[in-house]
Amino acid sequence: MVPSVVPGRRCQAEHMSRKVLLLQGHPDASTVHLGHSLAQAYARGAQAGGHEVRFIRIAELEFSLLLSKAVWDAQAVPAVLQPAQDAIQWADHIVLFFPLWLGGMPALTQGFLEQVLRPGFALARSSQGHLGVKLLKVARRASS
Predict the structure, then answer these.
(1) Separation of alpha carbons 54 and 92, rounded Å
(2) Which of 24, 48, 71, 106 has its CA 20 to 30 A from that of 127?
(3) CA-CA distance, 118 to 93, in Å (whole number)?
(4) What pLDDT is recorded for position 126?
């Protein structure tokens, strides 16, 4: 059996505190579901490991869904979602919890991601006009 940690050497990750953002994507905020319990357990484990944890409960936010590409391209993110963008920018590690509905994520969760991950925040256009420049990755690398 190979030991998971070499004696005398400590894993660098053991000493790195991470900023963890938990996105709770269950669209029903009226009761506790399995995903809520899983997110709470994840948060307890992360905090016990010395990490800072923040939550966003998507079902508690009131925002409109995007209805056209023109709105996605040109209009500002709803003010209620600005703190979500700030939290995403803050995080080193993001975990998204959601139930599978008809084989995918609930529409509210998808709508949240469409709203917050807009051009100018998560993506930018390349010199050829394609959405391909990953701003969050670039911002994280620049601040490290």
Answers:
(1) 11
(2) 71
(3) 19
(4) 72
